[in-house]
Design a protein that fits this description.
This protein is α/β, with parallel strands linked by helices. The protein has helices at about 5-20, 30-50, 60-70, 95-100, 110-125, 155-165, 180-185; strands at about 80-85, 105-110, 130-135, 150, 170-175, 195, 205-210. A seven-stranded mixed sheet has the order 3-2-1-4-5-7-6, sandwiched between helices.
Length: about 210
């Protein structure tokens, strides 16, 4: 991507974050927005080869991926450590780590190329001391002292729900999804709360207490 085009895309992304963040109850500092924009640049640079996220405009990425990911923050107390299952491009964990310096996370990604991207990204973004990358299936990982588990995208997501429920043990579970995920949680006879994602008709954050 040409330098001028890259700059234009970044500016559109930053504008979208600043325009829409209030809808998500956020008031991000300029420095936080710039850090998130650096992350967006990394994804743009590696996406053609790694297919980290589906094609979308800078505004759609800002709303659908970044601002949605940041809705997780209200469920993470100060100093919390959480596990991100199927981290992929680093969503929702990396945006949360960039905005909140008190947070730590274990990013679990089974695909080697994506795990290598995550290693590179957390190093470039200066958060490697607070982000542990694990290239394994989540069932093979001990999330140690993580207080919560989150998942935003996972192969055969609904089929994995019973395994996630067993694996999380007594940890809070925060899942991003739609009606199919809700139906699976109901099928498992699990008590949960749900919150509709701002600027969305069928995207929810499902909260399952310990």
């Amino acid at each position: 991507m040409a330098l001028l085009e890259t700059s234009t895309v970044r500016n559109e992304f930053v504008k979208a974050i600043n325009t829409h963040q209030a809808n998500f109850g956020l008031d991000l500092q300029d420095t936080a927005v710039e850090r998130i924009a650096d992350y967006y640049d990394l994804i743009q640079a590696h996406n053609p080869l790694l297919h980290l996220v589906g094609p979308c405009s800078p505004e759609e990425f800002a709303i659908r991926h970044i601002l949605e990911s940041l809705t997780l923050l209200k469920y993470l107390p100060k100093g919390a450590k959480f596990a991100d299952v199927g981290a992929g491009a680093g969503l929702p964990s990396i945006p949360c780590l960039l905005v909140r310096d008190d947070l730590r996370a274990v990013l679990i990604e089974s695909k080697e190329k994506k795990a290598k991207f995550l290693d590179h990204a957390v190093g470039e973004l200066g958060i490697s001391l607070r982000a542990q990358i694990v290239n394994k299936q989540f069932q093979e990982v001990d999330p140690a002292n993580s207080e919560a588990v989150t998942c935003r995208a996972l192969d055969k997501f609904t089929e994995q729900v019973p395994r996630l429920l067993k694996w999380r043990k007594q940890r809070r579970l925060l899942l991003f999804g739609g009606p199919n995920l809700r139906a699976e949680l109901q099928k498992q006879n699990i008590s949960f709360e749900e919150k509709l994602t701002p600027m969305s008709e069928q995207r929810y954050l499902f909260y399952l207490d310990r």
